[in-house]
Write a structure and sequence with these properties.
The structure holds 2 protein chains of 2 kinds.
Chain A lengths: L8 H7 L1 H13 L4 H27 L3 H22 L6 H27 L7 H32 L1 H9 L4 H4 L1 H21 L7 H8 L4 H30 L15
Chain B lengths: L1 E8 L3 E8 L4 E6 L5 H8 L7 E6 L2 E2 L5 H7 E4 L10 H11 L7 H10 L15 H15 L3 E5 L7 H17 L3 E5 L3 H7 L2 E5 L8 E2 L2
Parallel strand pairs in B: 3-8, 3-9, 6-7, 7-8
Antiparallel strand pairs in B: 1-2, 1-4, 4-5, 9-10
Helix pairs in contact in B: 3-5, 4-5
Classes of the chains: A mainly alpha, B alpha/beta.
The structure holds adenosine-5'-diphosphate (ADP) and magnesium ion.
The site of adenosine-5'-diphosphate has 9 residues of chain B, from helix 1.
Chain lengths: 261, 213
């Protein structure tokens, strides 16, 4: 890895000039956001430094259990984050379906990606497992959050139409089809847009990091393409699991719509 | 067709005894908020009763598959749903939902004529008036040829003369095809003119049955 410029402490410190600049601007403009900016900067720094040390530790003490624990924490955090992000009351069965679809979708994709596409060995190698899991889980989380919002909103907004369809003998699946399709569409659109803009509008963080740390751009791009496809697959899979399982929670076993006003 | 025994739904509706006979036109009248819509929703099983029993062809309603029931006992809600698309789509959607065979355009034009609508099938529904939408929704139900038509204020968006014409068509359709019709109406005139049976629902009072005109 020769040619990599190791950042000295003072160089890192110099980067904080941007924060100082921002603080100065909001002060002059009279926008009271100093506290948030400071907290965000401190949190970002502390969290990343901690993660750095954790990763170093994990890479030096490879163990299947520690990899599994890290993935479990990531999943739990992602699922909890979806519950928090969606500003709607979620029913218990719906929360359950969010968790089930996240686990099912991300783990299926992760398994395929690590063991069929990249073929890592040993299977729990944290150097591959953890960052790739992070990307797959993180992007799926964003997709499912969008899908949940759209599904819940849609079911409420189209309540009358859905019920009218049931009255004509439609199955819940057919009655909710429009809402379900919309939710799926909204959830995967950002990922598709990202792919379209990839390399032109922006270089993804992972690739930038790899190139900066000395890896050949071609290798970095190969990984990036593979990861992007993995992300697409996982977002699509988690979202499709979610909408297919999720819409059913709005109906009871008598095929009646159960939405509290 | 339907026999209702001592059925209650929350504090909203209580029916001690009510029989809806096959081939009859039954009108449900009563003040707004008295539970008329609730009664139709119970018969279509879009909601379930808390106690008592409703028999359909002598069978308890909760034993009948809800989707199969709704394909035979179709309900037109108070504000009929209009789906994105043109008049043809909207007429055919009932057949699609209930998995019945589609029909050709000439049958659809016959239905439009029956509903006194001088419209093209390819016309978009978003420009239709409230009364026209209501008649498209009625036509959609007639196409499905269900055993029982549950109509919640089917003429609420129609002027008086159109109301007369349309209700007459619906009653004629019911009679000549051996169907059964249950209609909620706030017009005692319409109820008296067209019904075999009138059921009045009085708020907070168990439903009783009396003969119509
Ligand atoms: N699901 C429900 N939960 C609580 N109250 C309801 C529900 N459905 C209807 N109601 C209330 O029950 C009463 C009867 O409603 P409805 O059957 O629509 O009356 P009508 O059709 O005779 O005007 C109304 O006061 C209505 O607000
Ligand atoms: Mg009503």
């Amino acid at each position: 890895m020769d040619g990599v410029i190791e950042l000295q402490l003072w160089q890192m410190a110099a980067a904080y000039v941007f924060v100082v600049l921002l603080l100065f601007i909001v002060k002059v403009k009279g926008i009271s956001r100093e506290k948030e900016i400071l907290i965000a900067s401190v949190r970002m720094t502390v969290q990343l430094v901690l993660v750095g040390y954790v990763l170093v530790y994990l890479f030096n003490h490879m163990h299947p259990l520690s990899t599994i624990i890290v993935i479990a924490i990531m999943e739990a955090f992602a699922i909890h984050n979806i519950f928090k992000r969606v500003k709607k009351p979620l029913s218990k069965p719906l929360k359950k379906m969010i968790a089930v679809s996240m686990l099912l979708g991300t783990l299926t994709c992760l398994t395929y990606f690590l063991f069929v596409v990249i073929r890592i060995s040993p299977w729990y190698d944290p150097r591959y497992f953890i960052p790739i899991a992070g990307m797959i889980i993180g992007n799926s989380m964003t997709g499912v959050s969008l899908g949940v919002s759209r599904l819940v909103d849609g079911m409420h907004a189209e309540k009358h139409l859905i019920e009218s369809s049931l009255m004509l003998g439609a199955t819940p699946k057919i009655a909710a089809k429009g809402v379900v399709d919309n939710a799926f569409d909204a959830a995967i659109l950002p990922t598709i847009n990202t792919m379209v803009g990839m390399g032109i509008v922006f270089l993804p963080g992972m690739m930038t990091g790899q190139i900066l740390s000395g890896i050949s751009p071609i290798t970095a791009i190969e990984y990036q393409i593979a990861i992007m496809l993995g992300i697409l697959g996982s977002v699509a899979l988690t979202v499709i699991f979610f909408v297919q399982l999720g819409f059913k929670t709005f109906f009871n076993e008598e095929n009646q719509l159960i939405i509290e006003d | 067709m339907f026999e209702i025994h001592d059925v209650a739904y929350k504090d909203i509706l209580h029916v001690k005894h009510l029989t809806i006979k096959k081939g009859n036109v039954t009108s449900i009248v009563g003040q707004s908020g008295s539970g008329k819509t609730t009664l139709l929703r119970l018969l279509n099983r879009i909601i379930s009763y808390d106690q008592g029993e409703i028999l359909f062809h002598g069978q308890p309603l909760h034993r009948v598959d809800p989707i199969a029931l709704r394909r035979q006992v179709v309900m037109l809600p108070q504000n009929p749903a209009i789906y994105n698309g043109n008049i043809r789509d909207n007429l055919l959607i009932g057949l699609k939902f209930s998995e019945k065979p589609m029909v050709a355009d000439d049958s659809l034009y016959k239905i439009l004529k029956l509903m006194k609508l001088k419209k093209e099938l390819k016309e978009n529904t978003d420009k239709l008036s409230g009364g026209e939408k209501q008649r498209v929704a009625l036509g959609r139900i007639l196409l499905m040829e269900p055993e029982v038509l549950l109509l919640d204020e089917p003429s609420s968006a129609l002027d008086e003369s159109t109301e007369q014409l349309i209700i007459e068509v619906l009653v004629q359709y019911t009679k000549s095809n051996g169907k059964t019709m249950v209609m909620v109406t706030h017009s005692k005139k319409i109820a008296g003119q067209f019904s075999d049976e009138i059921v009045e629902i009085i708020k907070d009072q168990p439903v009783n049955q009396r003969e119509g005109v």
